[in-house]
Design a protein that fits this description.
288 residues, seven-stranded mixed beta sheet, two-stranded antiparallel ribbon, 9 strands, alpha+beta
Length: 288
């Protein structure tokens, strides 16, 4: 622990005496610009280095003065912490910081939907297993919105064209275990996730698993991106984003897992890892 020295003057009827006292140093206030710069570097860090860096950023944001900027920084970090598997400690640290920022500076709603920071906090709680003490009607509304969205996804169906102009219908895959992944070529976390999805498709295809990658881009863009590489998941095109809207997609990548009966059994709200997908798939009859 670093200690700072402070001179304390003790006075009475007698002359004052200076006493040298060692007190803990107060943490320096980190500039918001520095925090923003460090958040921009998170994706370049190794898998091992990223969680502690995220926890450090959460602590620094927590010390910022209350206000909309603090909420925005905490919300931005909440979108970064879900990329990959950064662990429970990092997720909870970010949720605590976002909860604190919203408690200090509630964000007013515009229309019927709660503002995005409330929805992002509710996603961390609902899908990532963190907790929050935030007591706010807009947060409660966000929880209701996510529950309603999942209910819509559970009964969703679609028919889309693949890269060979063949129509694939979700309900036509009953009897299969289906991962529906929303992605795009311009999305860095999507590109990082693709080898994982490819490996899952290859590993479990013989047991009846199908990975569907849905994009709102066109065939030329996707073909140019893939080049001559062999990507095993089936790519489907949603040019008018109708299916994106049906699944309430607000950010990508996003993956929904359906069992052989077409029941929604799990989802990832960002870039998933092999371990995260296997945890959900373990609810089925697949054998690793």
């Amino acid at each position: 622990m670093h200690l700072s020295r402070r001179i304390v003057f003790v006075c009475s009827a007698l002359p004052c005496f200076a006493i040298l006292v060692l007190l803990p140093a107060l943490p320096a206030q980190v500039k918001e610009s520095t925090i923003q710069k460090d958040m921009g570097k998170l994706r370049s860090l190794s898998v091992a280095d990223r969680p502690p860096a995220t926890i450090k950023l959460a602590g620094e944001i927590s010390t910022l003065p209350a206000g909309k900027n603090k909420v925005q920084d905490a919300d931005e970090l909440s979108n970064l912490v879900t990329e990959g598997d950064q662990g429970a400690d990092a997720l909870q640290a970010v949720a605590d910081t976002l909860s604190k920022a919203l408690a200090e500076t509630p964000i007013p709603a515009k229309g019927d939907q709660p503002p995005m920071p409330y929805l992002d906090l509710a996603r961390l709680v609902r899908y990532e297993g963190v907790t929050t003490t935030l007591n706010d009607p807009l947060y409660a509304k966000a929880q209701q919105v996510l529950a309603a969205d999942d209910a819509d996804v559970a009964k969703a169906d679609f028919s889309l064209k693949d890269m060979h102009n063949k129509t694939v219908t979700l309900s036509g895959l009953r009897g299969k275990i289906v991962l529906v992944n929303f992605w795009a070529t311009w999305c860095p976390p999507c590109r990082t996730e693709m080898p994982v999805l490819d490996a899952i498709q290859t590993r479990f295809e013989s047991q009846g698993l199908v990975v569907l990658g849905i994009t709102d881009e066109n065939g030329f863009t996707v073909s140019s991106f893939l080049g001559g590489s062999k990507y095993h998941p089936t790519i489907l095109f949603d040019p008018d984003s109708k299916v994106h809207k049906e699944f309430h997609i607000e950010g990508i990548p996003r993956t929904f897992i359906f069992d052989r009966d077409g029941k929604l059994i799990g989802e990832t709200i960002d870039q998933g890892t092999w371990k995260q997908f296997i945890v959900i798939l373990s609810k089925t009859d697949l054998h690793p």
